[in-house]
Amino acid sequence: MNIIIFGPPGAGKGTQSSCLVEKKKMYQLSTGDLLRVELKSDSNLSKKLKEIMDSGKLVSDDIINNLIEKKISEPSIKNNIIFDGFPRNIDQAKSLDTMLKKYGQIISLVINLKVDNSILVKRISGRVSCSFCKKPFNEFFDPPRDPSECSNKECINRDLIKRSDDNENTVSNRLKIYEDSTLPLLNFYESKGVVKNVDAMKSINEVTKQINCIIDDL
């Protein structure tokens, strides 16, 4: 089956996609990864992509669609794909349906990870990591432990690093963008009867269990 995992920033899409890759042996198709691979090649498209990205412009849907189609045409991953970061709008969703139909495939399931915005803000704005071992913490849900408890003795002199864009204002803006642009896609897929909601406010293991039950029931 082919799966799309929806959810706002901080909902755990990457974590749950990784679990499906590991446990269900699915292929995670990431538009970001496809672009990076293409950029490393010596194709005419790679040169065009470099010009676009160096100028700060967005890569067009046509280019993204070509990269997606090239990948989904591979027999080795047929009907075993998790779509990561795609589609992002209705036009991309319709293009994806057309491409999948061309290769005898469909979207079997759309998993919608549901989390309250107040929790998402804390999940993202509370992220910090150790400057030495890079271990992640969360100031609200998983506070940094005493550095003397760390197996890496260098961590005794650590600093706690926070990304500059992990602040409440930026996170709130990202959530607003998600609601305005990505959320309407759920209506598109709900009309097809393939959306399943998952309570993503539970622990990682509990969310994984919910998703596995949904997949096993299909």
Short précis:
This protein has 218 residues and is an alpha/beta fold. The protein has nine helices and eight strands.
List keywords for this structure.
alpha/beta; 3-stranded antiparallel β-sheet; 218 residues; single chain; Rossmann fold
Structural description of this entry:
The structure is a single chain. The chain is α/β, with parallel strands linked by helices and 218 residues long. 47% of the residues lie in helices and 15% in strands. The protein has one domain: Rossmann fold. A five-stranded parallel sheet has the order 2-3-1-4-8, with helices on both faces. Strands 6-5-7 form a three-stranded antiparallel sheet. A hairpin with a 5-residue loop joins strand 5 and strand 6. Helix 4 runs parallel beside helix 5.
Low-pLDDT stretches are none
Oligomer description: single chain
Q: What is the gyration radius calculated from CA atoms?
A: 19 Å
**Which architecture would the CATH scheme give at its second level?**
3-Layer(aba) Sandwich
Mean pLDDT: 89
Task: Determine the number of helices (DSSP H or I, runs of at least 4 residues).
Answer: 9
Write down the secondary-structure element order.
EHEHHHEHEHEEEHHEH
CATH class: Alpha Beta
